[in-house]
Design brief:
This protein is α/β, with parallel strands linked by helices. The protein has 17 helices and 14 strands. It has helices spanning 24-34, 63-74, 87-92, 108-114, 118-128, 133-136, 160-178, 192-202, 218-229, 237-257, 273-285, 308-311, 321-325, 342-346, 393-402, 410-422, 440-456, and strands at residues 7-19, 38-47, 51-60, 80-86, 142-147, 181-186, 208-211, 234-236, 265-269, 289-294, 297-298, 330-333, 353-356, 375-378. The strands form 3 sheets. The protein has a 6-stranded mixed β-sheet with strand order 11-10-9-12-13-14. Strand 9, helix 11 (273-285) and strand 10 form a beta-alpha-beta unit. It starts with 6 loop residues before the first strand and ends in a 5-residue tail after the last helix.
Length: 461
């Protein structure tokens, strides 16, 4: 069983009662520490001459780890657990987003202008000139986050209802980081034609479409066909978002180890939507040698089971991931937990770069490679160098919406990667990407995307 660091994603609020005498709280804290829990805030709820009630925030590493901590506290003499709540579930209770009006309605005249009869004049203005929809409605700043629930995070085909919490979270990130109004659209079916037609029918409301958690290879066809059908940008974050941030991280990692992208061997484990998109963007940036592995091994020309997307990156060599990693300069994991061993990393070239991005358990634990790689990055927030799509998609859409780009191109993605990388002023082995909370990121990405769009002649404003 992999030992993970405690995380706020498994955070508990423990309301307990203990005797009001010296040493009793120390017993509680020791029990938590002995089990590896991470103690946060401690709040006094009530205190009398005989008892004290406290609220403890404790981060665990898993649901079972949290249950073990609670059981250990219950086993202490004279300790009474009053209530235990899962803070992550509490945060999601009732949903995480809401729709609010932008202007107040406090008088009859407000109502007459915002709704009938005044709104009819605005409807006629848009009917006369459809471009007015960008001036007088939410379209200019609204993105649809569309999923069919077929590939939710790394959890698989969970369906639309189970996908909704992820889409709500995505909408929050759009708003918080780039002031883009986004709304989740979770579709009940997974038929490719139905999805394309549904998005086409709802597109008049939105200034952009963000495809999310749609399984490969269907996601490739859905994205490409929508780009041909719609005059608004279509962006598949699992593809382009992941690729943008991965390239940004690699640009700075290569600066640290003083290697050039056209002279290195890159191995990508995972040939789904993210893996193929990352490979395509790295190739556009100048990478010459890219080997991709799936569950059956290297994408080799000798294999007969490769579809068109995988065949694009087929090489003459064959074998498994162990073979692929020999002599590699860069490993990029977009696959599954614990598929890489220390011996496999040791077989890489000197000054190796490892991006183990499977979540929540990476392809290899960072602690086991600290002395044998030059740079380690993951998708987790509790290790250095978190490769997180939130560095990309808010700014990409902010830029695309502001310049009225008709689509999102490879050049716009490359510009976004360079913008993200440029924000790290002092690059070192534990600092290759900016913080997701760096307020400069969305603005820098937005400006870079707009400039690229205008240079390509696809910006309408």
């Amino acid at each position: 069983m992999v030992s993970l660091n405690p995380s706020s994603s498994y955070s508990l609020a423990i309301h307990l009662e203990l005797p009001n005498r010296s040493g009793k709280l120390a017993q509680v804290l020791k029990a938590i520490a002995d089990l590896g829990g991470n103690l946060g805030e401690i709040e006094i709820i009530e205190r009398t001459l005989n008892i004290t009630q406290r609220l403890l925030v404790v981060d665990a590493a898993s649901e079972q780890h949290g249950a073990d901590i609670v059981a250990a506290l219950e086993a202490i003499d004279e300790i009474r657990i009053i209530k235990v709540t899962d803070r992550t579930f509490d945060l999601h209770r009732g949903g995480k987003i809401s729709v609010v009006g932008r202007i107040p309605l406090v008088s009859q005249s407000d109502l007459a202008m915002a709704y009938t009869p005044g709104v009819g004049r605005v409807c006629l203005a848009i009917a006369h000139n459809p471009e007015n929809v960008y001036t007088y409605t939410i379209k200019s700043n609204t993105v649809a986050i569309v999923t069919d629930g077929s590939a939710v995070l790394g959890l698989g085909n969970l369906g639309p209802e189970a996908a909704l919490p992820v889409m709500e979270g995505k909408a929050m990130l759009f708003k918080n980081f780039a002031n883009v109004d986004a709304f989740p659209i979770c579709l009940a079916g997974q038929d490719t034609e139905t999805i394309i037609e549904t998005i086409k029918q709802i597109a008049p409301v939105f200034g952009g479409i963000n495809l999310e958690d749609i399984s490969a290879p269907r996601c490739f066809e859905i994205e490409e066909r929508l780009k041909g059908l719609l005059n608004i940008p279509v962006f598949h974050d699992d593809q382009q978002g992941t690729a943008i941030v991965t390239l940004a991280a690699l640009i700075n990692a290569l600066r640290v180890v003083d290697k050039q992208i056209d002279q290195i061997k890159i191995v990508i484990n995972g040939a789904g939507a993210a893996g193929i998109a990352v490979a395509r963007l790295l190739r556009s940036y100048g990478a010459q040698t890219i080997w991709i592995c799936d569950s059956q091994g290297i994408l080799s020309r000798k294999r007969k089971d490769l579809g068109s997307q995988k065949s694009e990156f087929a090489v003459s060599e064959s074998g498994d991931l162990t073979i692929a990693m020999q002599g590699a300069d860069v490993f990029i994991g977009l696959s599954a937990p614990n598929v890489v061993s220390v011996e496999m990393v040791k077989s890489m070239n000197s000054n190796a770069i490892v991006f183990a991005m499977a979540n929540p358990i990476p392809e290899i634990q960072p602690e086991s490679t600290q002395s044998i790689v030059a740079i380690m990055a993951t998708g987790r927030s509790d290790y250095p160098n978190q490769i997180n799509n939130v560095l990309a998609f808010p700014g990409v859409f902010r830029g695309a919406l502001d310049c009225r780009a008709k689509t999102i191109t490879t050049q716009m993605c490359l510009a976004a990667s360079n913008a993200i990388a440029s924000l790290v002023e002092l690059v070192d082995r534990e600092n290759i990407v900016p913080s997701v909370f760096d307020p400069r990121v969305a603005e820098a990405v937005s400006q870079a995307v707009q400039q690229a769009a205008r240079q390509e002649g696809i910006a309408l404003s």
